[in-house]
Backbone:
């Protein structure tokens, strides 16, 4: 989800910007409207913004492999605020990380928005909704959202890498190779993200259940 | 209380495993996956930014970012939960 600067061909980098701009634009419109209608949402938006920034920047080491990677945080934000608002928060986090933290890049910002901000948010939100509708518990649903949102993010990153760098190989082959190389590091992190997402959502449901009113608290 | 003990135990095991793993911990997994393919394709990382942040300057930004985000999270957490456990005070 932090594709470095310069790895994507210019035309592909530009192509990823177009859908990213559409999602972020729609998210900004919704966020502006929400802050007018529901000013009390401001603390939760601020909290999730800080969480997404820290979670997606924190390099977490995976013992035994010697690699580090990042959870996303966007599935959790999407459950609590909706996927479009989570997309905006993820995009701002990715911009700051590209500018000041040597993670990602400006030319690859659009691609990184699509994988982490859009992919993580929408996949996590969809899994949470479906899980609740089929009767799974709140913690299990949130955990599955965190797990799937994380893996979808890295699946999309693998696709972006494959499209850009497949060379003479077929795109599906390079996608598979890239995603497979992510999995040993990312599966433990996806499990950690699942536990964290479940913990935060259940805590908020216990303390401020009204926050979850719009997101199918009861199956 | 039992949950906290489990969390502390898992954290302790994690820290021991990390500290005794003999590794340089260089670069994140996206770079590890993309860099070999980029090298094969003859593409090198480049930056459009007029600055380069590395070494201790990167540490400075990480620490500053963590402090600012931590302050913001604490501020909004307090605003959201009013600084007290609603269950206990209900």
Residues:
């Amino acid at each position: 989800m932090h594709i470095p600067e310069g790895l994507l061909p210019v035309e592909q980098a530009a192509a990823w910007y177009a859908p990213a701009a559409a999602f972020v634009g729609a998210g900004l419109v919704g966020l502006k409207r929400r802050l007018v209608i529901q000013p009390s949402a401001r603390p939760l938006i601020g909290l999730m913004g800080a969480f997404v920034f820290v979670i997606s920047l924190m390099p977490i080491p995976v013992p035994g492999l010697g690699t580090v990677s990042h959870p996303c945080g966007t599935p959790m934000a999407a459950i609590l605020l909706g996927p479009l608002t989570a997309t905006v928060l993820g995009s701002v986090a990715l911009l700051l990380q590209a500018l000041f933290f040597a993670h990602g890049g400006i030319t690859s910002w659009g691609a990184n928005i699509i994988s982490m901000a859009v992919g993580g948010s929408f996949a996590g939100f969809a899994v949470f909704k479906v899980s609740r509708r089929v009767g799974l518990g709140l913690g299990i649903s949130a955990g599955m959202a965190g797990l799937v949102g994380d893996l979808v993010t890295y699946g999309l990153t693998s696709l972006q890498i494959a499209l850009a760098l497949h060379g003479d190989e077929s795109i599906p082959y390079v996608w598979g190779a890239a995603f497979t190389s992510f999995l040993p590091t990312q599966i433990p992190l996806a499990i950690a993200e699942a536990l964290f997402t479940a913990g935060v959502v259940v805590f908020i449901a216990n303390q401020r259940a009204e926050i979850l009113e719009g997101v199918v608290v009861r199956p | 209380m039992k949950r906290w003990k489990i969390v502390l135990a898992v954290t302790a095991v994690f820290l021991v495993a990390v500290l005794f793993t003999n590794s340089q911990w260089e670069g994140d997994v996206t770079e590890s996956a993309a860099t070999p393919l980029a090298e094969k394709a003859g593409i090198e990382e480049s930056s459009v930014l007029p600055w380069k942040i590395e070494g201790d300057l990167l540490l400075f930004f990480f620490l500053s970012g963590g402090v600012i985000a931590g302050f913001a999270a604490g501020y909004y957490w307090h605003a959201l939960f009013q600084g007290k456990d609603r269950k206990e005070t209900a």
